[in-house]
């Protein structure tokens, strides 16, 4: 199914070269082929292309013609030294390159400087609500996630099983990120159970049966391969002392739930709120990445008041999976409002119509996402 993506590749590339990173199966190759079908394309997963450019990087310039103003190198981490040639062609011929991969880890660890600022960076995420439109189903998204091939699959459970296996084999084992795959696999399941929670390295190390320092390295792998994101704490509250430890969110709620071994969600499942919060994080993180930057944090006081998200230090967002909210759901927002530092205080939920409760805007999630993507929040 053709689903137009929200990341405007061609518009971006008309201005400058870009690295486009993203987890496997987020649709990078499809997006490139549909948006840049008239541009020269090199697939470095193709053995012949790989061997040709790996042996002789200068072949890249020899094959380019004057009309080739945008050039795509797919899976650039397979031939990282090719970046030297890319760098030279940007400088001497003004070519704009799109360089894709599943993460920047191998490039950075190989001593590459990501072209010294001559290329910007974007991350392609799984589907968002606006992209899917009438094809979006909230319960399907919360249960199986929003990876393109899995969202439309006739057997998403089996495909999620295959996906996590491919991640361990192709991203972790094949790239040599760790030698102890069984230990990393145990850690991955424990880390998934921490989705949306404050990080506690010691507890995770005990549960995964590995050293605390190993857990920290494993989390670095998760973040570098874009399987998880760290959400920093907002610590500028003056009236209440704030927690400083970050939270962890997986890039896709379906992948997280599969690794957790959770049962199928229904409309009244107790865990729906947790999954719904993770989904809203996905929309916020994607919006900031596609916009080209911004700040996203959470706030929690040491006395237990909490607000799920602080967007650009201006908008406080609490997320509830309920169809109907009550004054007690405003507890964290009311506490934060005493600081007087935010422009808006929002509670996002599954109510059908917007409400105003004690100075807090209660928004249906669909309306919240429309405001977000139209740039009308912060």
Note down, in words, how this protein is organized.
- Helix content is 41%, strand content 17%.
- It has 378 residues and is α/β, with parallel strands linked by helices.
- The strands form three sheets. The protein has a six-stranded mixed beta sheet with strand order 9-10-11-12-14-13, sandwiched between helices. A five-stranded parallel beta sheet has the order 2-3-4-1-5. Strands 6-8-7 form a three-stranded antiparallel beta sheet.
- The radius of gyration is 22 Å and the shape is globular.
**Rg (CA only):** 22 Å
How many domains, in number, for the residues?
Answer: 2
Strand residue percentage: 15-25%
Give the N-terminus to C-terminus distance in angstroms: 33 Å
* Low-pLDDT sequence parts: none
Average pLDDT metric: 92
The tally of beta strands, per DSSP, is 14
Helix content: 40-55%
Global geometry: globular
């Amino acid at each position: 199914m053709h689903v137009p993506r929200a990341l405007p590749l061609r518009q971006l590339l008309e201005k400058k070269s870009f690295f486009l990173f993203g987890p496997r199966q987020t649709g990078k190759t499809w997006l490139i082929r549909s948006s840049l079908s008239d541009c020269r394309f090199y697939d470095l997963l193709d053995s012949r292309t790989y061997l040709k450019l790996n042996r002789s990087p200068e072949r890249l310039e020899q094959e380019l013609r004057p009309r080739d103003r945008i050039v795509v190198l797919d899976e650039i981490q397979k031939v990282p030294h090719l970046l030297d040639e890319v760098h030279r062609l940007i400088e001497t011929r003004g070519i704009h390159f799109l360089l894709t991969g599943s993460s920047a880890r191998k490039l950075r660890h190989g001593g590459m400087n990501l072209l010294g600022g001559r290329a910007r960076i974007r991350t392609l995420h799984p589907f968002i609500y606006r992209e899917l439109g009438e094809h979006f189903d909230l319960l399907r998204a919360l249960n199986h996630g929003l990876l393109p091939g899995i969202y439309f699959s006739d057997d998403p459970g089996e495909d999620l099983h295959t996906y996590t296996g491919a991640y361990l084999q192709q991203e972790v084992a094949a790239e040599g990120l760790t030698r102890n795959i069984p230990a990393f696999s145990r850690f991955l399941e424990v880390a998934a159970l921490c989705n949306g929670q404050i990080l506690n390295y010691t507890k995770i190390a005990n549960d995964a049966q590995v050293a605390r320092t190993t857990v920290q390295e494993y989390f670095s792998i998760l973040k570098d391969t874009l399987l998880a994101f760290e959400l920093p704490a907002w610590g500028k509250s003056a009236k209440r002392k704030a927690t400083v430890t970050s939270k962890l969110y997986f890039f896709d709620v379906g992948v997280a739930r599969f690794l957790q071994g959770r049962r199928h969600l229904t409309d009244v499942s107790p865990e729906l709120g947790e999954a719904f919060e993770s989904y809203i994080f996905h929309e916020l993180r994607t919006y900031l990445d596609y916009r080209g930057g911004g700040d996203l944090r959470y706030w929690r006081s040491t006395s237990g008041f909490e607000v799920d998200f602080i967007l650009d230090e201006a908008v406080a967002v609490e997320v509830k999976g309920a169809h109907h909210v009550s004054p007690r759901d405003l507890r964290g927002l009311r506490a934060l409002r005493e600081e007087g530092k935010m422009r808006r205080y929002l509670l996002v939920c599954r109510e059908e119509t917007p409400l105003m409760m004690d100075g807090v805007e209660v928004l249906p999630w669909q309306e919240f996402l429309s405001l977000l993507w139209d740039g009308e929040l912060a």
